[in-house]
Design goal:
Helix content is 12%, strand content 56%. The protein is elongated. It is mainly β. It is built from two helices and 30 strands. It has three domains: 147 residues, Immunoglobulins (Immunoglobulin-like); 107 residues, Sandwich (Immunoglobulin-like); 107 residues, Immunoglobulin-like (Sandwich). Strands 22, 24, 26, 28, 29 and 30 form a six-stranded mixed β-sheet that branches. It has a five-stranded mixed β-sheet with strand order 3-11-10-6-8, with no helix packed on it. Strands 14, 16, 18, 19 and 20 form a five-stranded antiparallel β-sheet that branches.
Length: 426
């Protein structure tokens, strides 16, 4: 029995000794294995500016491991890429990298990190496949030397590898505006703009439609802003025409419009080209002034009011008609007069028959007047309100009649007095 107890005691002591003699682990061989891929699409159109995200993966493994009770386990593994820095280059490609090298820290075996670079594709980039080199600099644990039972000396190596990233420039349509002109483009009216477009890209556009679009808060507003082109080949030149209105708030100067082409590309996908901004000169609005002097009319009865209007604007007014708006003491049953076509600087005279209340006040008045006309595109327009100056006075005929009565009365009185004196003398 005692011998059996001794055997059990030895086994227990052996079990208790295992934790105290835990084996150390050391990896003899292994190194980082880095590879790079692009997250998302690697296809870009000329002129595109985008964030290119690169995924850097470490597939390195540790192939040999030793275990021993006297070994000291190192802090780093041989397959860990430490202090990783990445830099994207674009030498001899139509790409421009705008982001500096990026620090990614450590990448253990089986892990990955991402880095995003701001990349611009040149407008003139030729379609095709290009290689962007990704320079990766890192350190790794080459070996760890033991000194005694409690000292490790780490030997790190620095390494730089170049990983190729394949990117593709797709064919596209790009437009160049080679000629611009406008017609009847004046403030407050409609006019036409004419453009000559050239396809300077590398893609044949199918079912192409040229469009003009308002640029921000520009007072140029397209009213007929589409033109069908059909098939638009690289190098081809087309002429297009659009109708545009100009806001009344505009001033006579140049304003922008954007032009682009919507089309089906080489993948039969509907896309829109990069817009091009063009400036168009805008002439002054059609405006009028009353240039006739103040007219003096008599209170009571009817009078003919003659008003001279002048086109002081920058465009011709067609089929112009003048109108007055009478208020007390004026009334009129003939308040419209035809002026005809008025070119810039020309004048025309309108005649209105007005009745004036005899109870009106002798003073100067301003009668409201406006002109309805048509612009170059036959749109009906109304001018700003003008004032027609009129002065009222008492009728000269009434004044003459009063004087005549006074004179007649004086003559009668004088004659009566003379007869009375003459008879008295007799």
């Amino acid at each position: 029995m005692r011998w059996q107890h001794a055997t059990v005691l030895l086994l227990l002591l052996a079990l208790l000794a295992v934790p105290g003699s835990a084996a150390g682990v050391k990896y003899l061989y292994g190194n980082p294995e880095l590879s790079a891929t692009i997250a998302g699409t690697n296809e870009f159109a000329p002129g595109a500016e985008t964030g290119l995200t690169v995924v850097l993966s470490n597939s390195g493994v540790n192939t040999h491991k030793i275990v021993g009770s006297t070994l000291i386990a190192p802090d780093d593994l041989p397959n860990t890429a430490k202090l990783v820095t990445v830099a994207l280059k674009s030498d001899d490609t139509p790409f421009t990298v705008k982001t500096d090298p990026q620090f990614l820290s450590d990448i253990m075996g089986g892990a990955s990190r991402t880095a995003t670079f701001d990349v611009k594709v040149a407008d003139s980039a030729e379609p095709g496949t290009y290689t962007l080199p990704l320079l990766v600099t890192y350190q790794y644990l080459q070996d760890a030397e033991e000194y005694g039972s409690d000292v490790l000396r780490y030997n790190y190596q620095t390494k730089t590898v170049t990983l190729p990233l394949s990117v593709r420039v797709t064919p596209d349509l790009r437009i160049e505006v080679t000629d611009v002109r406008s017609e009847s483009l004046n403030v407050g009216t409609e006019g036409y703009v004419y453009l000559t477009l050239k396809n300077i890209g590398h893609d044949t556009a199918h079912n192409a439609v040229a469009k003009i679009v308002r640029n921000g808060a520009s007072p140029l507003i397209p009213t007929d802003g589409s033109a069908y082109l059909g098939t638009f080949e690289p190098g081809e030149v087309v002429d297009v025409k659009f109708k545009v209105s100009v806001a009344n708030s505009a001033e006579p100067q140049s304003y922008p419009l954007d032009v682009a082409v919507t089309y089906e590309n080489y993948e039969q996908t509907t896309v829109t080209s990069k817009p091009v901004t063009i400036g168009f000169p805008v002439g002054g609005k059609i405006a009028f002034e009353v240039v006739s002097p103040m007219k003096t009319l008599n209170l009571g009865g009817k009078s003919v009011l003659e008003v001279v209007y002048k086109n002081t604007g920058d465009a011709t007014a067609y089929n112009a008609q003048a109108r007055i708006s009478t208020v007390d003491p004026f009334t009129s049953s003939d308040d419209t007069a035809y002026l005809g076509d008025l070119a810039p600087g020309e004048t025309a005279t309108a005649r209105f028959e007005v009745s004036i209340d005899s109870d009106g006040t002798e003073k100067e008045y301003g009668i409201d007047s406006e002109i309805r006309y048509r612009d170059e595109l036959d749109n009906s327009k109304i001018s700003d309100t003008m004032k027609v100056p009129v002065a009222l006075q008492k009728s000269s005929a009434a004044f003459t009649s009063s004087v005549f009565i006074v004179i007649v009365a004086a003559v009668v009185i004088g004659a009566g007095y003379y007869i009375f004196v003459y008879r008295k003398k007799k």
